[in-house]
Amino acid sequence: MTAGAPVCSVVVPAYNEAAGIARMLDHLYADGHARDADVVVVCNGCTDGTADRARATGHPVRVIELEQAGKPGAIRAGEAAAATLPRLYLDADIVTTGAAVVAVASALANGAIAARAPARFDLTGCSWVVRRFFAASGRLPGVQAELCGGGMYGLSAEARARFGAFPDLVADDLFVARVVSPSEVTIVDTTPTVLSPPRTLSALWKVRQRVVRGTREMSATQGADSTAGTTGRELLAQLKHPRHAIDVVVYASIVMGARLAVRLRRSTPRWERDDTSRTAA
Known about the structure:
The protein has eleven helices and nine strands.
């Protein structure tokens, strides 16, 4: 961090991310802008040396280690250590730049309530079905404008003051998206965040079930706020172009199938993490 006050604090929860944490931090600091931010990496329940890898990069990050695994607890610990607002929350397996982080922080410091960078999916190595799924998803305006699902998001001081500690919920970004209204979300014109999606249908299927459970959990505790109607209309609009039909069928089949699978499953499975997209730098 530079000698002056940080422009924002950045919380990075990390669970067994040794394969990619160095890549993430190297990209973040490559352009020099991240030195204006206060970055806290919170390793929670890691057994693979994630903390050592983060420290070994030599970047000016603070690394916290928690024995207990769990993203909500990691976020709370990171917030307790964070130096300032606005505050950004980054997934540990994304690729972003310091310039993008500072751009989002600047937007939040100048009137934006909640914000994130645009998102781009790196489909290298993904199966045909996965590529079709994300082709349809990428043409959904509602999805592109949401605060959640972009691998990072930021909150202004005003937005962060609307709630206390992060609750124990699967989907932290979905919770935050309920705290602010859609009209208060700004997608900042900056370098897109690069996300690596599941590479196989099996991995995507598991992740989609996790998304469904997170949504159901949120509805049970915070009330229903489904975007299914809007998404359905946007999917139908894609059918005006025959070449998009197969993408729509793949997307709808996976989304609806995951909902049905969760509804039929009585027990609550362990956290369904995608390891197909996690590779060493």
